[in-house]
Design goal:
The chain is an alpha+beta fold and about 375 residues long. The protein folds into two domains: about 230 residues, Endonuclease III, domain 1, CATH 1.10.340.30; about 110 residues, Nucleoside Triphosphate Pyrophosphohydrolase (Alpha-Beta Complex), CATH 3.90.79.10. Helices cover about 40% and strands about 10% of the residues. The structure holds iron/sulfur cluster.
């Protein structure tokens, strides 16, 4: 069975599907001839520019983003300049763009890249996803456009093109169906081989451009689409029926800095999480909303040297937690936070702890 032979039933496993080179080949060729070239964030291998544009475009129209992008890059030409800026300055430039958490996340992420990666963007989607505020699609956009990695993006435009092309009629309000569409998006990627990085850049940008300029949410211009010949939604005469989403899922994302404070003889500082909130009542490492708050808490203890460990994502039902462990060694007479205590390893087993904290402590 090929992808285009029928509308896909939710029960069909992605692994049963045959990868079909048609979509990737058509999109790559179409983008080479007709793709947009006039945006300041296009035709670049600069991950800072791609990242910035992806974040700005998440909730905002292209026409609006254009001016903001130009002004932002003129003021903060690279990630180091953004990291050094005050949050007030960043907010000031963001003023009018809305969704200010994006600006805060950008600022935090820039500082994280400077502190944790010497100012150099990680090159894989997997690593990029661990950075504050960078989700799977943005990470894949950066990795595929700038570093040629063979990873799929699935922003709103691309989701629409793909769902229509393959006739994906399962409800994307359900996480399992969303995951399945991700699998299918990966099946459609350009094949491995020579010039893959170049083809990946054309494919990724081409899918975005198709969704933005041809496969509109309403009244798609199928006559101008390179996929029309094999598009299920077009053949059925029902492009507007795809993608299907019965209710909007409000998933959140939160970045948390976890201070893994330990003594030379193995005690670790833990505190019980307050209620209500994430992990209420469980024992957890000291928790901060950003690196600055974490550092401030240690000033009175002589600002000891910190070791930043790789961040990782922990998925809850309602939000993604991006956890940023920071290790420090302290003396046992130090009181790390207002509440909490030093616990020796023998006591960890008896404490209720969230899974990622247990993993960090090897409990
Ligand atoms: S043929 Fe029409 S519905 Fe199908 S992907 Fe192209 S524009 Fe969208």
């Amino acid at each position: 069975m090929t992808l285009q032979s029928a509308s896909l039933s939710p029960s069909l496993s992605a692994t049963e599907l045959v990868s079909d080179p048609f979509l990737a080949q058509e999109v790559v060729q179409w983008h080479m001839r007709f793709g947009r070239r006039n945006m300041p964030w296009q035709n670049t291998l600069n991950p800072y520019h791609v990242w910035l544009s992806e974040v700005m475009l998440q909730q905002t129209q292209v026409a609006t983003v254009h001016g903001y992008f130009v002004r932002f890059v003129a003021r903060f030409p690279d990630v180091a300049a953004l990291a050094q800026a005050s949050l007030d300055d960043v907010f000031c430039l963001w003023s009018g763009l809305g969704y200010y958490s994006r600006a805060k996340n950008l600022h935090q992420c820039a500082q994280y890249i400077v502190q944790g990666y010497d100012g150099v963007f990680p090159q894989t989607a997997r690593q990029l996803q661990t950075l504050p505020g960078i989700g799977r699609s943005t990470a894949s956009a950066i990795a595929s456009l700038c570093f040629g990695e063979r990873v799929a993006i699935l922003d709103g435009n691309v989701r629409r093109v793909l769902a229509r092309f393959i006739g994906f009629d399962a409800d994307l309000a359900q996480a399992a169906n969303e995951r399945r569409l991700w699998d299918l998006a990966t099946h459609q990627l350009p094949a491995e081989g020579e010039d893959l990085p170049d083809r990946m850049a054309h494919y990724t940008q081409g899918m975005m451009d198709l969704g933005a300029t041809v496969c509109h949410a309403r009244r798609p211009d199928c006559g101008a689409c390179p996929l029309a010949q094999r598009c299920v939604a077009c053949k059925l005469g029902q492009p507007d029926h795809y993608p299907v989403k019965t209710r909007k899922i409000k998933r959140g994302q939160q970045s948390i800095w976890l201070l893994y404070a330990a003594t030379h003889d193995g005690y670790v500082w833990l505190r019980q999480r307050p209620a209500p909130g994430v992990w209420a009542g469980l024992y957890c490492l000291a928790w901060f909303d950003d690196m600055h708050a974490l550092q401030s808490a240690l000033v009175e203890h002589g600002s000891p040297s910190l070791h930043i460990e790789p961040a990782f994502r922990h998925v809850l039902t309602h939000k993604d937690l991006d956890l940023h462990p920071v290790r420090v060694q302290l003396a046992r007479d130090v009181k790390v936070t207002a509440d909490g205590a030093w616990f020796e390893p023998e006591r960890w087993q008896g404490l209720g702890m969230p899974a990622p904290i247990k993993k960090m402590l090897n409990v």
